[in-house]
């Protein structure tokens, strides 16, 4: 086989579309943010639980396409029993399965949180990935809207714990029962109109993006965008569109005024009255707990796209301005949301099981916090490097001993593992890695029982200040000789000084 044939067989390294490799900085920043979220959830009395990434496909819900190969929207495969399994689409459906399967052993109300990866077999695009992380909290077995109100308050507390100031966020709250009342009033209630209702929900959800007139088009015949692409509308009559827009626009200057407006919109019919009553109770709970309308606001334009919501729905929205990919100044928007889904667990149980919860989009929230300058990676110092000067067994053992002593004292450290022939290459590696200190012991230092400690941070600073070689040799910058027994203490002393320099820089 010739060289050409071998070259053709070379495997091409390709990252699958819609997926990303994550850097140490991204991973540590995520851990820091997730730790803050977890702190709030634990404070509220929620406990962690973890479900697997795979579920049997039929457990994931009716929103999956009905086809011979249920691989549209989700990633699916068959196991050795020829049953379809899918990577989880969200964290809510797996929780419903977990609760139903362990119902007799679970203490209700069941208050739990989870975070992990979810997967969507959808077309990737800018900011749209096939794998992303969510962080959910749910209460199962609590029928009263006080559980929904608590979710909204916990979302507000989470935003502030992560450094989002009041005025830069709001938790917006609505109730699907009120919207269902409007749907019934305009003649699209019942199972026969499920598709039309979903189109109406999606149209309302575009209010922030397209404005009232854009939504009016989507509620009617449809809307053509700037590129000429046409989106078919819900096909509602003009008076029905006016009713829906009156509902969406019922938000007032206060929660009390919004509720009064909603009562007028649904006046004359029983449908929706329960939803308004629930919103009224939630507003009272927010007020009693000190969550004013700048933090939690009743807003009829919140609909949430999923069909399984049955009562209160809510979203965490960030209000500060960012520049989008078109160069336009827009508000950042939603970073999470949820609502009441009393029917999801019931699918497995044959009996009503009330539940409510919300989900935070971790990657999106991370982007927001970076925009606000509120999220840096956890400060993990790069390791102290022990250089390899001699490769005989005794010397290598001593180097490894230095590393072990440093690690035992809590100092991140490593022995150089590359080709040790060129000492300059070792220092070059340390420089590129950002190592703060190099430990050097050649045969002469070993005979004297000492080590050289080179402060690489200070050395780099001094090298910029010293211009000629004579001054460099004379200064011996940032390098000291200490006895082996003093190695750990001296390293800790230098690291402490470096940390203090960073604070005052």
From TrEMBL:
EC number: 6.1.1.21
Binding site for L-histidine: 90-92, 120, 134, 138, 304, 308-309
InterPro entries, per database record: aa-tRNA-synth_II, aa-tRNA-synth_II/BPL/LPL, Anticodon-bd, Anticodon-bd_dom_sf, His-tRNA-ligase, HisRS-like_core, HisRS/HisZ, HisRS_anticodon
GO MF annotation list: ATP binding; histidine-tRNA ligase activity
GO BP annotations, alphabetical order: histidyl-tRNA aminoacylation
Record flagged with keyword Coiled coil: no
Location (main, coarse): cytoplasm
EC top class, as a word: ligase
Subcellular location: Cytoplasm
Catalytic activity: tRNA(His) + L-histidine + ATP = L-histidyl-tRNA(His) + AMP + diphosphate + H(+)
Aminoacyl-transfer RNA synthetases class-II family profile domain boundaries: 1-383
CC terms in the record's Gene Ontology section: cytoplasm
UniProtKB keywords: Aminoacyl-tRNA synthetase, ATP-binding, Cytoplasm, Ligase, Nucleotide-binding, Protein biosynthesis
Protein family (similarity comment): Belongs to the class-II aminoacyl-tRNA synthetase family.
PANTHER family referenced in this protein's UniProt entry, alphabetically: HISTIDINE--TRNA LIGASE, HISTIDYL-TRNA SYNTHETASE
SUBUNIT field: Homodimer.
HAMAP family referenced in this protein's UniProt entry, alphabetically: His_tRNA_synth
NCBIfam families on file: hisS
Protein name: Histidine--tRNA ligase
Organism: Flavimaribacter sediminis
Lineage: Bacteria, Pseudomonadati, Pseudomonadota, Alphaproteobacteria, Hyphomicrobiales
Gene (name only): hisS
